[in-house]
Amino acid sequence: MSKFNILVVEDEEAIRDMLIMVLEQAGFATMAAESAIEAQSALDQTFPDLILLDWMLPVTSGVEWVRRLKKEAIYQDIPVILLTARGEEEDKVKGLEVGADDYVTKPFSPKELIARIRAVLRRAGKISATDTVSVGDLQLDMGQHRFSIGNRQVDISPTEFRMVQFFMTHPDKVFSRSQLLDQIWGRSVFIEERTIDVHIRRLRKILDEYERGDLLQTVRGFGYKFSLTDSAVSAAVVTAVSY
To answer: Chain-centre distance of CA 176, in angstroms?
Structure first.
């Protein structure tokens, strides 16, 4: 089972070290940043499964950074939990309105923090969903955000990763462009439906390099499907390992 990766953004070193210790004892992998600038730089290097974010950061507050982050389609699906000393209802509502998935009010117990993290990961489909999905020799590791064909790791973008995840977990079903937009990008994002065609072509080109392009098929007049039946790996069995 792969470890879930948590990005901890906290400017106070003692609190940051404590959070990292609690998370790692609970089995999570961690990254750390002490400002929004460092956190953004970390995102450019690694895609975390969840961000644990202090409200009162220097220069750019945690709330302001969440607002900016959630405006970017590439980051919108990363769950965010705010850590805040603000216990008033209007502050909690403000945090949720800018895009945070949950909040934890300081002081808090390690058990409460871990429980809230797991609850948010569960709502995001990372826990209780499949951690690893295999279709023939294609394998998708959600915990590590890795896609491989055979024993070869394939470099794909976060958007392409979400597309592969959706198609591999919904084989042999036809989806329209609008359905794919809702499922992969979310209903809150405005993207032209034809943008789907561009991403499909990119993904198919990648699969073609490994002679798997026929898995992703166009259904004329409707949309696309990830088909096992009509592909070169038609005998493949879809398997999933639960968290």
So the answer is: 22
DSSP, collapsed to helix, strand or coil, labels residue 242 as strand
For tokens 């699906």, the residue is 77
- Per the CB < 8 A criterion, the answer to whether 238 and 134 are in contact is yes
pLDDT tens-digit map of 9-44: 999 999 999 999 999 988 888 999 999 999 999 888
Rounded CA separation 42/38 (Å) = 6
CB 80 within 8 A of CB 99: yes
Which is it for strands 102-105 and 80-84: parallel, antiparallel or unpaired? parallel
Question: Could you tell me the two tokens for 135?
Answer: 């279709």
- DSSP at 182: I
30 DSSP β-pair partners = 6
Q: What is the pTM for the complete model shown?
A: 0.53
The pLDDT of 89-112, averaged and rounded, is 77
Q: Which residues contact 113 (CB under 8 A, 6 or more apart)?
A: 19, 22, 104
The conformation of residue 3, written as its DSSP 8-state character, comes to P
Helix axes 110-123, 13-25, angle to 10 degrees: 70
- Tokens coding 12: 């106070």
CB neighbours (10 Å) of residue 121? Answer: 22
